Amino acid sequence: QVQLQESGPGLVKPSQTLSLTCTVSGVSITSGSYTWSWVRSRPGEDEEWMGAIASSGLIYDSPRHAYRTSLSRDTSKNQVTLNLAAVTPEDTGVYYCARDRPGTGLSGIYDFRGRGIQVTVSS
């Protein structure tokens, strides 16, 4: 069974860098032809795709957030990391990691996702 678990700080101060980790179990993040996405949900807003990293290591940046985001992975720990720089209160929301359903590209269709982590940006 594939499981994803997000971890990181629940509270971040404005202008800091938010660093979130997704630990994947049940499958290697380097196997197959999968992509591992980060998405976020903010009150009153549609779910927003933040970027993805493929099993090959190829990174797909969100055009909207590319100047602030950095995705990486630790294959020894089977983890994918999202760094979001210069956060503001507008970045407050629930952040999820998810596996894109094979064959759907980066269309926002996921076959597995974590429970999410609430992140609040506040001084």
What does this structure look like?
There is one protein chain. This protein is mainly beta and 123 residues long. The chain contains no helices and eleven strands. The strands form two sheets. Strands 2, 4, 5, 6, 9, 10 and 11 form a seven-stranded mixed beta sheet that branches. Strands 1-3-8-7 form a four-stranded antiparallel beta sheet, with no helix packed on it. Strand 7 and strand 8 (79-84) form a beta hairpin. The protein starts with a strand and ends with a strand. The relative contact order is 0.31.
Enumerate how many helices there are, as a single number: 0
User: Mean pLDDT across all residues, rounded?
Assistant: 95
Helical proportion, percent range: under 10%
Look at the helices and sheets and give the structural class: mainly beta
**What's the alpha carbon Rg, rounded to whole Å?**
13 Å
List the helices and strands in order: EEEEEEEEEEE
Strand content: over 45%
Oligomer: single chain
Parts with pLDDT < 50 across at least 5 consecutive residues? none
Distance separating the two termini: 39 Å
According to DSSP, the number of beta strands is: 11
Main sheet summary: 7 strands, mixed
- Overall geometry: globular
